[in-house]
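for the record, two folds in this file. i put them one after another cuz i was lazy. first one right below, seq on top, structure tokens after. the second one comes after a little note so u can tell where it starts
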Amino acid sequence: MSFKVLGLNIEVTPSSLAGSLLLVVIFTGLALASLQLSLIGALLWGVVAMLLYWISETLHQYGHFMAGRRVGYAMTGVRMWGVFGASVYPADEPTLPAATHIRRALGGAPVSIVIGIVVAVLALLLRDSLSAPVWGLLVLVAFLNFVYFGLGAFLPLGFTDGSTLLHYWNKA
């Protein structure tokens, strides 16, 4: 299944549907353990958290898209797999200089880090006026964006931006 968001073709694979279910289970458990919600309330919280997770992933990928546009070699889409998203570039893309790969790889993390900081500040400013579940969602989104999609992107795990940077760094 695929659809367009922000000019990007988003491909949803069967493994990302399984990953979404896993996220709902994890987030529902987190809500049950920390927010004192009923099972239905926690399940609803888990579904909303899963949707916010994928929105965060899409915005991270949009940062790569914008960086690619700035260097003249934009990605065409995102393939969602498991609980991850992978940038998709044209099959006929020419061999590119290492600096181009580095600039594209550096596009996602800053977007995620800024989102994480902005949402964290909002959570702190609004803490006294929000319900615990809503405040918890803001904290989760801030954490996911700043730590997971932001700083975590630099880990060289073989499929992350950090791996791309490590591969091309000495070639630039």
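(here's the note) second protein begins now
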Amino acid sequence: MSEEYFVKPEDITRPPVHPGVFFAEEILPALGRRTIGEIATLLGVSRQTLHRVMAGETAVSPDMAVRLGKLCGNGPGLWLRMQAAYDGWQASKRLKREIAKIPVLR
């Protein structure tokens, strides 16, 4: 019989990958020899906007998630979940001391 191991959020030390960085490093190379400008045009956004997302400087908004989901054929859900995981991890680390003072109500 196998055992289940639960990972608490505070046990996770490696941050989730920003969805824009994931797009830049994993998806964009698979799209062939297309430039950022060409991809931005297909998405209907500026090259600068796409570059900021791919650099992890800007969050993947719901609008951008819909656009990326259509382009990649996987829908917006994946991109929104990746952004939520990234944002949650960042907030947990940033607020660690404050959160430690908050009791758990049972």
